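Final report, closing paragraph on structural work. Over the funding period we assembled a curated collection of sequence-structure pairs, and we close with a single example.
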Amino acid sequence: MYKNEDSSIHQISLPLVNKNEDRNVFPLVINVLTRFWGEEPPTLEIESRSKYYEGYKGSVLIEGLEIIEKKLKLSSKVYRGSLDDLKRRLSQGIPLIVILPGIAETIQFATIVSGHDNEEKRILTYVPEPDSFGAIPEEKFVEEWMQDDFLTVLVYPEDVKDILKNDSFLFDQSNKISLEAERLKILGKTDDALRLLQNELGQSNDADKNPQLLLMIAGILNERDDIKCIEYYEKIIEINPKYYLAHRGLGNYFLKKGDYSRSNKHYIEATKISPTRYGPIYKNLGLTYVHLGDNASAKESFKQYLTQVPEAKDRKNILDFINS
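Its predicted structure, as stored:
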């Protein structure tokens, strides 16, 4: 832990890992914390698991967590964190992975919180470049983190277990079930994924209060055009009104069903929560305006879409409409 002279900055020194070492089954954030705790990534295991995800561009977080737990002397917790918890872990010398909103065509991303500046009220994050780190105003960080219900990943070695033994980690089990279901879904085993999630929902005391698990169920039902997805999305919003992905999910469902007014309402709510999180949402918002007969608002939404996704494949068609 590094502290400056007046102790206002608390920052953990993390190893510099090349961005090229990022793997979908062993994301960069897992790689960095593996090395931080004195372990080396098991290359053969990583390459072996990667073969199942050729062509898949996202991260499979559960694979990385399995690798460190089965092949290395590390464990993990996946839970709903808080600002107080985050600062306490940092004071214990434990960096944390948090999930934050993405930009452009990235819906969300994982980063490592390595410190905080008490005087400037900033959260410090890992940047894979020499002598660099990110600094996010504390209030903004909390607002963004809230959009994914403060999802937090703690990676730790055996000798840290005693420090954590009396602490509770809300939703750890159901979050890991959600990650396992996500893996099954990526592998094309959607029925198995849904069955796993529903079993957890029926057996766990707190799963019905966990937005991560509810979102996975809602997403699968949405893809199947199942009206039951609505109640899951609405439950998430009841738990956390700032949960961006629930509003986006409802917007997508109602758009498919031709209920353009309700779709429009939820897309607008999502963009109020985060105007820059996911550029393509503005294309869908524009489509709702077209169907509602409001071409002026549609054009403004399409302009925002192209601003956030300048390399969009349908750019020409969108521009033709804007200029019509």
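Confidence is low (pLDDT under 50) at residues 1-6. The first strand starts at residue 2 and ends at 3. We thank the funder for supporting this effort.
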